[in-house]
Amino acid sequence: MAASIETAVKQWADDQIRDLGWHIIASENETADPSIDQSLKSNPSKTGGNGGGRPDFTIMLDNGEKTRVTFIYYLLGGTVMPIPSHHITESDLLRRLNAAVDKTLGELDVKGEFDSVKQFPKKTGVAGNVIENSVIGYPSDNAQRPDLSVDGRLVEVKTTGLRYKKGKARNASIPYEAKEPMSITAVSPDKIVEETFYDSDFWDKIANLLLVFYLYDSDKTVTASQYANFPVLGYDFVHLTQSEIEILQQDWLLIQDFIRDVQARGIAPNDGYPALSSALRKDLMFLDTAPKWPHHPRIRFKRTVVSTIAERYFTNRVEADDTNIASYSEFDQRLHNAAKKYHGMTVRQLLDALNITWKPTAAGDVSKSIAETIVCTIFGSPHAKFASVPLFKEMGIKPKTLVLSKNGGRTEDTKFSGMDVMSWGNEDDEFTDSEIYNYFAETQFLVSVFKEPSTDAKLLDNVFLGFKRYSFSDAFIRSKVQRLWDHTRTLLNTDQLKVSYMYTATGQQRFSPKTKLPMTETNLMKSADNDVFVRGTGIDGKDKSLIVHGIATYRHQDIWVKGTTMVKLLENEAYL
């Protein structure tokens, strides 16, 4: 064995091979077969020399017809046999983790992690360091191998933050969601092109994954030392379903194919690799990559995937996937087939063809969300909402409906809800860490496109044109979306947010026809100011709980994209 490999490593590997029941007929320095010795002398050694490098194990496989020789080399931290340097029994590990639940990270820190970050308020990774160093008891490292050997089973440890869901009661049955995507492992371009999925660094990291959850109990961005106040919620030995593994494999292969293509075409790394994140954004279902080149990107679980795993842990329930979809190409094909079959039908005809039961509104029409139900039915799901379909929820795909006028123009603006605009002033200064950036950069939108036959037509009479799957470009996000974020933060952080009463052109105060209350407006961006803007929403004019300088306005300020902008963006997107 090479002198650089520790004796303990050789002993560990020898034990694993002996446990398989293989019979040793010769030691490393003895001859099992003269032809093997001659072959080793005639070929480069494992260290790249001119022969003579002996394998640590030689396996002779004989099925009665052929004999095949296989060499095994022990490489510390190598891809063939990643060997953790940290060993622990399962009983000891469980004892340590159970003792940590409900304690704050500060209470658990016995290694002085929080003392070390007092002068570094933006330092990341402190929560993970506390779990690894103080709770489990091993030093943190960045090696591309699992962290622990638990009774001989290789286990990767990840610590991830959860937050309370926006707009949900804290006593809800599932009050938590992932705070952010979860980094798994670095993308090493020269390495990933030679790997297969099941011998990749990525698979080594997720095959046996231990997640430790803590509660990011703040609606503001906090300093590293303030993580000491966050409690540990629990831990989970993640069991990925077979369908999840298949989707992760397809995503990983797309990343591998992209890098192989860059290398095959001889494109310089600084020219080819920067496009990795944006080029695959629309094709990856469960994974993404960040940051961008020249920093080596890391493969991450999307935030929605982490949320699904957390929900599974807290409910102790695995929801079965009834869609049988393993990639976006399959997803798109299913919708393409449906669009080809139902193109030109009215909504009423679609509901009849798909046997969808519906209740008319007071106006004798259907709800605007009916397109969502139609898509769920096409995929064989009994649910009416995307959020209830396990795969759609884990993918993080959102439904949108675009109704074109008879002449092909826009009929209304498009709302993108679910963001707490009034909390943006508490966010960090980096736009790429903001809630709105992550929403627009991570989310895929499935747009059901219809055309109205006339301006006064019911939704039931709108004609189905097809489906488009859309994700916003970096250029749009960096210009239109960031402009809104910057403007809003300036108003919030400099106390310039204003709410004003509305008046007619002749100076008469305006009142709501329904509630007879005074109409108000803010100085947040409007559609006349930017393609992405803010508009308050509520049940009616009485639903105004936000008081700014003595004047009430809507607490919920939603994000909208102008209808004309959406039409233009989608014009360049082909129907599925």
Question: How is this structure best described in words?
Answer:
This protein has 576 residues and is an alpha+beta fold. It has four domains: 7-72, no CATH class; 87-315, DNA mismatch repair MutH/Restriction endonuclease, type II (ECO RV Endonuclease, Chain A, 3-Layer(aba) Sandwich), CATH 3.40.600.10; 328-477 and 565-571, no CATH class; 483-562, no CATH class. The protein has helices spanning 7-19, 34-42, 90-100, 105-108, 113-116, 126-136, 189-192, 201-206, 242-264, 269-272, 276-280, 303-315, 328-342, 347-353, 370-378, 390-395, 435-442, 474-493, 563-571, and strands at residues 57-62, 67-72, 86-88, 148-150, 153-164, 176-178, 182-186, 209-215, 232-238, 287-290, 298-301, 398-404, 414-416, 445-451, 463-470, 499-501, 520-522, 532-537, 546-548, 551-553, 556-561. Strands 3, 4, 5, 6, 8 and 9 form a six-stranded mixed β-sheet that branches. The chain has a three-stranded antiparallel β-sheet with strand order 7-11-10. The longest helix is centred in the middle third of the chain and has 23 residues, at 242-264. 27% of the residues are buried. The model is unreliable at 1-5, 43-52 and 75-81 (pLDDT under 50).
Helix content: 25-40%
The value of Rg in angstroms is 29 Å
Overall geometry comes to globular
Low-confidence sequence ranges: 1-5, 43-52, 75-81
Class of the largest domain, according to the CATH hierarchy? Alpha Beta
In whole angstroms, how far apart are the ends?
Answer: 57 Å
Structural class computed from helices and strand pairing: alpha+beta
Quickly count the helices. Answer: 19
> β content, as a range?
15-25%
CATH architecture of the largest domain: 3-Layer(aba) Sandwich
Mean of pLDDT = 84
CATH topology category name of the largest domain: ECO RV Endonuclease, Chain A
**Count of spatially separate domains:** 4
Largest sheet, in brief, is: 6 strands, mixed
